[in-house]
Amino acid sequence: MVELYGKALSRRDIAARAGAFSQFAGVRLMRLEDGVERGIRMLEFRSGTGLRFTVLIDRAFDIADCEYRGMAVGWNSPAGFKHPGLAEYEGEGGLAWLRSFSGLMVTCGLDHILFMNDEPGDTYVYGPRKTISHSLHGRIATIPGKLCGYGEEWRGDDCILWCEGVVTQGTVFGEHLELTRRIEIKAGTNDIRLTDRVVNRGFYKTPHMYCYHINVGHPVLAENSRYLAPLKDVVWAAHAGDDYRKQGVGYRTMPMPQMNFHEQVWQHEMAADSNGEVPVALVNDELGIGFEVVTCKDQFPCMYEWQNLQAGQYALGIEPSTNHVLGHTAARERGELIWLEHGDERRYESTFRILTDHAAIAATEKRIRALSGQPDEEFPQPSGNHIPIGGRG
User: What's the distance, Cα to Cα, between the start and end of the chain in Å?
Assistant: First the structure.
C-alpha cells in the first residue's frame, strides 16, 4: 500500500483518484540549461510525502538537491552543480575538486579518497607511469554516467521509484573501475536506499578506496542542531594539534554560521547494531526535522564528521569511509588498502532518511543511544586509536 495524505491506498485506489500517478509521486528526466550547470541530465524524484530530491546522471548519479515540504536538507555550495566538462580535477595542486563540490551527496573514489597523494604505479606495468598522482577525493564525482533505466515499479500495491546507471573510471595503462548505482525509494516514504557495486573490469591489480561526502545544509543545520551517533571513541580531530578549543566549536552541538571559520574534521569510532548497521543523524529540535544516514559497518568501517561552518558555505558532512582519515599511503603501509583483481567487486548498501517530526527524532536518538553512549563533552580528547581494519591483506 502507498501512504498518501494520511491514508493507505491500493494501486486501484490511487488510479481512481488521478489519471496518472505522477500527480502524486514519480521520477522525471530533466536537463539543466543555464550557467555552469548547462547540459547536465538530472532525474527528479518526488516520493509523495513532500520529499523531493534530484540525481545528477552526468555527475556519477550523485544526489544534488534534497528538500522536505519546502525545507532544504541538502547543501548547495557556491560552485554549483557544475557540468563535468568544466571540471578542473588536476588544478590548484589537487584542490580544484572543490570547484565542483556541491550537493547532498558527492561520491569520493574509486581508487583514491582524502587529500592529494602520489603512489607507486608499478601495478600497471607501464614504465613512463612510475607514479599515480591523485587529487583531492578522487575522480569519480565528475564522470558522466550511462542511464540504464528509471521509473515506477509496482510490486503489488507498493510502488518503488528507482533509477540505475553505470559510471566508468578508466584509462590506458591504468585503472578500469566500474560503479553501478541503483537508487530506490518506496512511494509514500522518506527512506532513500542506495546500492552501489564497484567492479574491476580491467586486468591490472587496482586499489579501491570509497567514501560518501554527505552534506547537510540549513535549516537542518542551524544553531543548536545536534550530531547524533553511536560514538564509542573520538579517534582523531584535524584541529587537535593546535588549540583544540580555539574556534569554540565541538563535535556535538552546532553554532550559527561563523566568520573566518577553518574547517574541522573528526573521525569517530562507531558501534553497530545487531544487523551490523551504523545510524548517524543531524537533527534540528526547534524545527522538528532531521536527516539520518544508515551504513553497514563491514562496508564502511570508518566515519568522519566534517564541519564547514563558514558563513556562505554552511554545511555539516557525514562521511562513511572504507579507510581511516590517515590517507592513501597509510592505508597501503598498514595493509588496509583494498586491492581488486579482474572481476573483484565491493558492494555498499546505505539508507538516507528524513526525520519528519519530534517523534521520529526521539525514536532515532533512542535507537542510537541504545547502541553506545555519546560523550556530552563537546571536546573529548582524541584517542589516536585507529583500529586496524582486517581482511584486506
Answer: 47
Q: How long a stretch of residues is the chain?
A: 393
Domain annotation covers residue 290: yes
What are the respective helix, strand and coil percentages of the chain, to the nearest 5?
A: 15, 40, 45
Which distant-in-sequence residues (6+ apart) come within 8 Å of 359 by Cβ? none
- Write out pLDDT tens, residues 270-293: 999 999 999 999 999 999 999 999
Mean pLDDT of the chain: 96
**Sites in the chain below the pLDDT cut of 50:** none
Q: Show the domain range for 238.
A: 211-321+356-386
Residue 241 forms part of a structural domain: yes
Determine phi and psi for 69, rounding to 5 degrees: 50, 45
Listing DSSP states for 173-229 in one string gives TS-EEEEEEEEEEETT--EEEEEEEEEE-SSS-EEE--EEEEEE-TTTS-TT-EEE-
Q: How many domains does the chain have?
A: 1
Provide the CATH number for the domain around residue 362. 2.70.98.10
Answer whether residue 382 is part of any domain.
Answer: yes
The CA-atom distances, in angstroms, between 200 and each of 71, 145, 275 are 40, 17, 28
- Residue 393 has a pLDDT of 57
Q: How far is CA 353 from CA 53, 60, 141, 309, in A?
A: 12, 21, 22, 23
Calpha distance 164→146 (Å, rounded): 9
Q: Would residue 180 count as lying in a domain?
A: no
The model carries a pTM of 0.97
